[in-house]
Amino acid sequence: MEWLTTHLAGFFEVIQHGGNALMNGMTDGLTAIPMYLFIAGVFIIAVVTSPKRWGFPIFTLIGLAIIANQGLWNDLMSTLTLVVMSALISLIIGVPLGILMSKSDRTQAIVQPILDFMQTMPGFVYLIPAVAFFGIGVVPGVFASIIFALPPVVRMTNLGIRQVPTSLVEAADSFGSTTAQKLFKLELPNAKNTILAGANQTIMLALSMVVTASMIGAPGLGRGVLSAVQHADVGAGFVNGIALVILAIIIDRFAQKLNTKPGQNLPDAKKRRWIVIISLVVMVIGGIVTSFSNTSGGHKKVSLGYVQWDSEVASTTVLAQAMREHGYDVTMTPLDNAVLWQSVANGQVDGSLSAWLPNTHGNLLKKYKKDITVVGTNLSGVKTGLVVPDYMAVNSIEELSSQANKTITGIEPGAGIMTSAANTLKAYPNLNGWDLQVSSSGAMVSALEKAYKNKEDIVLTGWSPHWMFSKYKLKYLSDPKKAMGDNEAIKTIARKDLKNDDPETYKVLANFKWDTKDMESVMLDVQSGMDVNKAADKWIKANQKTVDSWFEK
Question: Where are the bilayer-spanning segments (predicted)?
Fold first, then answer.
């Protein structure tokens, strides 16, 4: 892996930049089509391709309207781009490979175990080479999706061609057909339905990778599902999940309409074909018109990465909203902590407000210090440690014995605080036999809420500022050995060349500072049900002088 990333870095970079340009262009094109026109066009196509059946067209209309009503339209278009590109590339690779397998038993013997490996390997594993080769974003998401979704179309193409009746093949041979003529005029037409069934499965598998791909920065509906899981937000998870189900059903039904029996044609097929073409042309024209009407002066583009912790969501959203008000085009990308540091180091992310130093993320700073600049401190006096409800009769880590079933409830495995907690288990002999439970920040708070309500023992990995200290009576356990670290600060980090490439943006990042009360006020608004962008806007309006100071030149 290291050899490939070192010696083929230029090759991977070309694919990354080319793929980003292509897929961003596709997403921009889909987004440019007016929402009402897109829904109407898809509805008309559904009506035309479903004669005398109104169930699917009505479902399509209502389903897309629900997605639009929930403010998920742009995410839907990003997801559609990822699925279409993944499925298309899988088909381009898979169908020829399946043909080759059907013509050669040796090729089948070689490829079959590889396909078995690809199908049985957990999808999360494919994120590792994807990030190593292409960094973060939609390109590694597509790469991982292709590996996961490719096997069905290869297998079904091979199967379909091998199942063509031998008598038909012999008849073609007797008439002097060439290999190409047999393939394109006999075998592929007879295997069409089997191949299309494999293609349909490939599309569905690509769609199933949406949430997994969001872990490495792929945009779309999967990002909303992942965020909901990490914050235990049932409502947001349900809405984004329903949107994915609606998209899956629509794609599946349209794909099935291509799988027809020989000689099966819709009445007035030519007329219906023209209606579909006209609908697509109108949608494209609408997108072109919208693109020209929305063309304006270029905004300075900035990418901010963050970890899906409540504190980092609050700070990153506030700065992003403030920068947008000052004319910046800001992209916010949620990432796993280790991936975030790697992305800043390799220049795919301009900066982040999520570095807890010197202890929690100290190892990551040592690893990437040559490629990262610590811009400054954006919040002082933060703290990490083991936290318990105040009704528990322990005040020090040394006093823990068998409380909470000898379990420390933690958050995401990549978080620095989890490393500190693991070191704490080793540092204190009385914690021998204790377990560190991996979950998410949202799941940890849900466990706290349940235990607090029932007055049960619970030990958490905690940090402040955090809204849970305002909602519940909690206390830090003293840490005589400083295994969880001492008081820290949240630092702003940036890619190494940002100061030279964009000194104005660098200065904004350096100027960004606020205090614990500011952060907690935004987090409490979000926890109370307010949209995070609205909570950020509320704080900005109430603290305009502070915000203006961030942009002083």
Answer: 29-48, 55-73, 79-102, 123-150, 203-222, 234-254, 274-292
* pLDDT value, residue 260: 65
Whether 393 and 439 map to the same domain: the answer is yes
> Would you say the pTM of this structure is higher than 0.85?
no
- How many CB atoms within 10 Å of residue 429? 7
* Contact predicate 511/425, CB 8 Å: no
Q: Which of 307, 373, 371, 376 is nearest to 345 (CA)?
A: 371
CATH of residue 158's domain is 1.10.3720.10
Residue 106: count other Cβ atoms within 10 Å of its Cβ.
Answer: 8
Distance CA 214, CA 333 (A): 9
- Count the neighbouring beta carbons within 10 Å of the beta carbon of residue 265: 10
User: Element (H or E) spanning 329, and its range?
Assistant: strand 328-334
Name every residue whose Cβ is closer than 8 Å to that of residue 116 and which is 6 or more positions away in sequence.
none
CA distance 481 to 486: 10
At residue 150, what is the residue type? Answer: L
How many CB atoms neighbour CB 110 within 10 A?
11
Range of the structural domain that residue 395 is part of: 301-550
The C-alpha R_g of the chain, in whole angstroms, comes to 27
Structural domain ending residue among the three candidates 264, 279, 314: 264
Residues in Cβ contact with 344 at an 8 Å cutoff, skipping those fewer than 6 apart: 305, 350, 351, 352, 368, 371, 372, 493, 494, 495
Map residue 283 onto helix, strand or coil.
helix
User: pLDDT tens across 58-89, in order?
Assistant: 999 999 999 999 989 999 999 999 999 999 99
d(CA 444, CA 289): 48
Q: Which of 466, 451, 465, 464 is closest to 392 using CA atoms?
A: 451
Report whether the peptide linkage leading into residue 465 is cis, meaning its omega lies within 30 degrees of zero. Answer: yes
In this structure, the answer to whether residues 220 and 314 fall within a common structural domain is no
What distance in Å separates the CA atoms of residue 519 and residue 516, rounded to the nearest whole number?
Answer: 5
One domain, residues 256 and 309: no
Contact 322, 513 (CB under 8 A): no
CA-to-CA separations, 245 to 65, 129, 222, 227, 483, in angstroms, rounded:
14, 28, 12, 17, 45
Span between the terminal Cα atoms of the chain, in Å = 44
pLDDT < 70: residue spans in the chain: 1, 260-267, 293-299
| 119 and 190 inside one domain | yes
Those residues with Cβ within 8 angstroms of residue 212's Cβ, 6 or more apart along the chain or in another chain: 123, 124, 127, 144, 222
The pLDDT value recorded for residue 237 is 87
3-state secondary structure of 478: strand
Number of domains in the chain: 2
- Cα(226)–Cα(231) distance, integer angstroms: 9
Say how many residues make up the chain: 553
Side-chain-facing half-sphere of 46: CA atoms under 13 Å: 23
